[in-house]
Amino acid sequence: MPGILGNPVLISALTAWGIAQVVKVPLEYLRTHRWRWSLLFRAGGMPSSHSALVAGVAHGAGLFEGFDSPVFALAFAVAMVVIYDATGIRRQAGKHARIINQIVLDLTTGHPLKEENLREVLGHTPMEALAGMLLGIACAQIGWFIWR
For the residues 6-31, what does the mean pLDDT come to? Predict the structure, then answer.
């Protein structure tokens, strides 16, 4: 299969991303006993689809191009930045959103305003990122076995 649809690294990484997004829904149900279908299209939650995608690309690049290749080095560096952002900066932004939402709630008690709350689940815990990374690596490894 020629072209972009024949790229096993991309297919494996996108598969990992898709699985991570879909798995969020039943995992959230097990945790809260509520179906939240919006998680299919949102960032945050368990497992990290961002981590799954970039770990899948990096591992796939290493398997298909070599772990000593410049392509792997680039993919690994991008994965490090994305995972750092997901577990660091975006997670802190989520904590800030939670505090700001509580302040707004406190200020408006007794005088409810129709304000939209900030999204609080923006980033990932280290465990969510690790789960995404492992999913991405597993999908890349399966893709390597299929397409090599």
Answer: 92
